[in-house]
Design goal:
about 55% helix; about 700 residues; two-stranded antiparallel sheet; single chain; two-stranded antiparallel ribbon; 34 helices
């Protein structure tokens, strides 16, 4: 990194200014309530076209008057305060209140940070303020009180003139310096701010704080934001039934990053002896989708801003991806760019760039929003089943494809030949890509990039990736699955197969791996729960003495394989995966040898099944308890015996099995109904996963 002095460090704030900003009683909730009451009063009178002289009209929100006066006072020390711990938190609250109800204040805030963006982006506290500023200045105002018609003296305009009149006119400010940039448009100030970051984009990409500011900037240039893919319904309404704005929920609600954390001690969770060790302290899976950012109208209608933002986005991509001027499209040997893919800061940034470019290409190719929305309706996202929404995919010849080729050192002039056996001869034709794919799959951040490529790439390139990466080869696929990180890449690959032919090739390799039982783990089912904690601990000890594994870290591959066969596979693929599953359970439970020594003459249906497989697996009714591993559990606020704990991977596997063809799922449906009693089924229905069946 270059020295910090090159970035233009602001001066230390004056002690009086620090005391002033720290003493302000800023509260966004109070400001929102005051503004709501103020606007509601005048809108009600305007709609009724009559006013009651006995009702005294509310004054202009006092909190807004205070924040405008405060912003005007600290204008020349805004960047300095952003570098202090406590003042920076006050500044972020001030930013959110101002930008929520005033468009003019957005320009004031941006102009106060001109020439300081690079340093603030590399600062621990300043980077939080920089991200908050960027996101809030482009967000649409909830109500623009600058020009709000109150039917009287237009108090909002008067407050703005009193607070920012000297700054907007370019007169001398409190610091004795002429303020000129405040009179510029919002779009020019925003682009000028982001262009400051472009000069040091290479350094910022590898900076723990700067990379986050770059990610926010690129989202703004693309007009896209990332939101929770599994946002609960009704999240835009509070407990009182009031409709919440974007400032209260979603991405904008989380823009204040420098807030103080709760100092209260967390309550220790009661130890659950029946819980899987892998699920302890596990945070919810964060999955994001992209949506168009709702910007202020000035930016939405400015064609020159969109054109410059698009070209600036391309410049950032070229700089961050280390694309030189002499790059003639030839394949370069692995180097610094490939190291960046595994960097803790640059790696996530490259992933975001790939997703943004894919989104832009997808929109330009599909055009209308109706086309996009109709395609997305095909996949219904489900958090519990981990069914992810479809990611926008780039097309051949796009900028996103060019970026992927550079990341993987992919030679696009070579046509990959898909062989029946997935031989490595096809891999040898790509000089570097095969080794890079293998290396990325085993690296924590590189594997996430590889997963993003599988989700965003075109159908033809997805198939080529599988061939070059050796995923169609059973031996190499087994190595991928055994690895603690690359097995997640396999899960993503299987979940994103594009055609029936591809699903059949993957199913053929996976069936051989599943049927040997290496991916499965039998878990003894206990329907009747013990009555006390001591009994539960004794039951756990019994399972450990029997050598029963509680959960396999590779069951995710099994459930994804079954999901692939249910959504993309043919009936033959479904039959093969079921046969491999039953034979796999027979292997690990020791039932295979017993089946081989059976002397009873099989029935006609069993003869047909024997023709399909050399070894007979266990029956569906025996597989179900092994998959689900039903164990007793208790739930907070309820007594024991109230709920059952179901193995998540096994429950998802069973869910997708029940989506198979009717003749294949018939035995599994009967097994569920015959094994469990009515009370058990009621408890299963109360479970988040069991209720999906």
């Amino acid at each position: 990194m270059s020295g910090e002095q090159e970035y233009g460090r602001p001066r230390r704030p004056k002690p009086d200014t620090v005391s002033y900003i720290n003493g302000l009683p800023l509260d966004e909730t109070v400001a929102a309530q005051q503004a709501k009451e103020y606007v509601a009063h005048y809108q009600k009178n305007k709609n009724e076209e009559s006013t009651d002289d006995n009702i005294e009209p509310p004054e202009y929100p006092p909190m807004l008057s205070a924040v405008h006066a405060a912003l005007s006072s600290i204008y020349h020390e805004f960047a300095s305060l952003a570098c202090e711990e406590i003042p920076s938190q006050q500044v972020e609250t001030l930013i959110r209140i101002c930008c929520r109800y005033s468009i003019i204040s957005k320009r004031i805030i941006l102009s106060s940070m001109i020439s300081y963006w690079t340093f603030l982006s590399t600062h621990r506290f300043g980077s939080h303020v920089a991200q908050t500023v960027l996101r809030c200045v482009v967000a649409d105002v909830e109500v623009n009180l600058d020009d709000f018609d109150d039917g009287q003296d237009n108090e909002g305009k008067m407050v703005i003139e009193d607070s920012y009149g000297a700054l907007l006119k370019g007169e001398s400010g409190g610091g004795g310096e002429a303020v000129v940039s405040s009179s510029q448009s919002l779009s020019k100030l925003l682009l000028q701010s982001i262009e400051e970051l472009k000069l040091y984009a290479t350094d910022l990409a590898a900076h723990v704080c700067g990379s986050h500011v770059l990610r926010t900037s690129l989202c703004i240039l693309s007009g896209v934001e990332f939101i929770d893919a599994f946002a609960p319904p009704g999240s835009t309404v509070n407990k009182q039934g009031d409709v919440l704005s974007e400032w209260d929920t979603g991405a904008l609600a989380a823009t204040r990053r420098g807030k103080l954390k709760d100092k209260k001690k967390k309550k220790k969770k009661r130890f659950n002896a029946t819980a899987d060790s892998e699920d302890k302290n596990k945070t919810p899976q964060e999955v994001t989708v992209m949506k168009e950012m709702k910007m202020v109208s000035e930016l939405q209608t400015d064609a020159s801003f969109h054109n410059r933002a698009e070209s600036l986005m391309d410049e950032f991509v070229s700089i961050i991806s280390l694309k030189g001027d002499n790059d003639d499209g030839k394949v370069q040997s692995p180097g610094e760019l490939q190291q960046q893919t595994c960097h803790p800061s640059a790696g996530p940034l490259l992933i975001q760039i790939l997703r943004l470019l894919s989104y832009r290409d997808y929109q330009s190719k599909n055009g209308s929003k109706s086309t996009i929305s109709s395609e997305k309706k095909e996949v219904v996202a489900d958090r519990r089943l981990v069914i992810l929404p479809q990611e926008p995919r780039y097309s051949t010849g796009s900028q996103a494809e060019s970026l992927v080729h550079r990341l993987l050192c992919w030679d696009s002039s070579i046509t990959t030949i898909n062989t029946t056996e997935g031989e490595e001869g096809a891999t040898d034709k790509q000089l570097y890509a095969g080794d890079i794919i293998y290396g990325l799959s085993g690296e924590p951040r590189g594997s996430i990039l590889l997963e993003a490529i599988f989700r965003c790439c075109s159908d033809s390139f997805h198939d080529e990736l599988c061939t070059v990466g050796g995923f169609y080869n059973e031996a190499s696929l087994r190595d991928y699955i055994k690895h603690g990180i690359s097995n997640f890449v396999v899960q993503t690959l299987v979940a994103t197969v594009r055609s029936k032919d591809q699903a059949s090739r993957m199913a053929k390799c996976l069936c051989s791996i599943i049927e040997d039982g290496s991916l499965l783990s039998a878990r003894e089912a206990i329907i009747l729960p013990p009555r006390s904690k001591e009994d539960r601990e004794d039951a756990t000890a019994v399972e450990e003495n029997k050598g029963i594994k509680r959960k396999s870290p590779r069951m995710g591959v099994v459930w994804r394989a079954v999901e692939m066969c249910a959504t993309k596979g043919s009936s033959q693929d479904q039959e093969q995966i079921l046969s491999a599953l039953t034979r796999g359970f027979a292997t690990i439970t020791g039932a295979a040898s017993a089946n081989d020594n059976t002397t009873d003459e099989p029935k006609s249906d069993e003869k047909k099944r024997k023709k399909r497989s050399k070894t007979k697996g266990v029956a569906a009714a025996e597989c179900i308890p092994l998959l689900l591993g039903l164990t007793p559990g208790s739930y907070g606020g309820e007594g024991d015996n109230s709920r059952l704990t179901i193995d998540a991977s096994g429950a998802r596997t069973l869910y997708h099995i029940l989506q198979f063809k009717e003749r294949l799922r018939k035995d599994w449906v009967k097994g569920v109904l015959n094994i469990y009693t009515t009370d058990d089924l009621v408890k299963i229905a109360n479970d988040g996963l069991g209720s999906r069946w």
